[in-house]
Write a structure and sequence with these properties.
Elements (H helix, E strand, L loop, with lengths): L14 E3 L4 E3 L1 H18 L8 E5 L4 H13 L4 E8 L6 H15 L2 E6 H5 L15 H20 L3 E3 L4 H13 L3 H5 L4 E2 L8 E3 L7 H10 L16 H13 L5 H17 L8 E2 L6 E2 L5 H19 L4
Parallel strand pairs: 3-4, 3-6, 4-5, 6-8
Antiparallel strand pairs: 1-2, 7-8, 9-10
The structure holds adenosine monophosphate, FE2/S2 (inorganic) cluster and zinc ion.
Length: 316
């Protein structure tokens, strides 16, 4: 006989959550999922229940589940979906369609930054630059900057991203092994703005295991992207994730224990990590540790590569 749900005691259990010692039916799982989002937001004081909040939505399962879950958990708040169309051939169009489908379904405002249309290049163009082997890292810098631009356009003080428990713990491990303390500190649940007028960056899924984002999408019929980014590659982060899975096999609480330890460590580290001296980027005016910020430097490089390529191409 199938087990019954540990919460409602009536429906058949479909989801096993060993770290919580629960077996839940689909309905109770969805409640469990959205309640955890609500508690995380409240415990870390991410925003008020009637705030206007920007949600960075990529089209992937995590951020799509986040937007849906936040709407369920905070019906009085106003959410704006923020999407960066990266112009990646065979991928970005698909992501954008899924995001448009979800905002329509949830009746949520959408603000899009279209890289190709607004800046005249796409992430694919980094293939022709010194970033050819590190397209993802260049893309990360571009996205982080554009999230701020989008939040400014949408007039939101808070920016929520879909980083989940697995993402955060594996990035923490990575930064720990590389002794990159300043980056480790930046993984905290609420990251204060570097300068006034910038956003508070919050991670409402910091306590949510990645596989539960997928389950929540499936149970709630949330559309999400089925394509993978052509520039994604298996890196060290992936290997750290595999180590994490291995260590979690005998101890389902392992990732939570790691998270708790890191969260305790962060305030101690913060006292020791030197804050970068910031000034305004000479090109865009955003905070930067050098004369020209990382975003503007990459934009310059990619535009130069495009110009050189176009000059070399025969005119048709
Ligand atoms: P990633 O760094 O690709 O793992 O993404 C981490 C988080 O950044 C996602 O959960 C989203 O909240 C946000 N994000 C990533 N890509 C985009 C995008 N193209 N547009 C909007 N948000 C994004
Ligand atoms: Fe940025 Fe793949 S989404 S390189
Ligand atoms: Zn700049």
């Amino acid at each position: 006989m199938p087990a019954t749900c540990s919460r409602c005691r009536s429906a058949a259990a479909e989801v096993n959550l060993p770290y919580a010692k629960l077996r839940l039916c689909a309905r109770c799982f969805k409640d469990f999922y959205t309640n955890r989002i609500r508690r995380t937001v409240e415990d870390f004081k991410m925003f008020r229940s009637d705030d206007r909040v920007g949600v960075a939505v990529s089209g992937g399962k995590d951020s799509m589940a986040l937007l849906h879950g936040l709407k369920e958990a905070f019906p009085a708040a106003e959410f704006v979906a923020l999407h960066v169309d990266l112009g990646i051939r065979g991928y970005s169009e698909h992501c954008r369609e899924k995001v448009e489908e979800l905002v329509e379904m949830l009746d949520v405002e959408l603000e899009v930054f279209d890289l190709q249309r607004e800046l005249g290049f796409s992430i694919d163009d980094f293939k022709d630059t010194l970033y050819r082997r590190k397209v993802c890292s260049a893309c990360g810098t571009i996205k982080r900057h554009l999230f701020e631009v989008l939040a400014g356009r949408a007039k939101t003080r808070v920016l929520a991203t879909g980083h989940n428990l697995d993402d955060v713990v594996s990035m923490m491990l990575n930064n720990f092994f590389n002794r990159n303390w300043s980056q480790l500190v930046r993984l905290k649940p609420v990251l204060e703005p570097l300068m006034p007028n910038q956003t508070f960056k919050v991670k409402p899924l910091i306590k949510t295991p990645e596989d539960e984002d997928l389950l929540y999408c499936l149970y709630s019929e949330i559309p999400f992207r089925e394509e993978n980014c052509p520039h994604a590659h298996v890196g060290r982060l992936r290997r750290n994730r595999e180590t994490l899975e291995y260590l979690s096999k005998d101890n389902p609480n392992f990732k939570y224990q790691m998270l708790r330890t890191f969260l305790k460590l962060i305030p101690i580290l913060e006292g020791h990590v030197e804050k970068p001296k910031l000034r305004k980027c000479e090109v865009c005016g955003y905070p930067s540790s050098s004369q020209i910020c990382a975003f503007c430097r990459r934009v310059r490089i990619v535009k130069e590569a495009r110009r050189t390529r176009n000059k070399g191409e025969p005119r048709l």
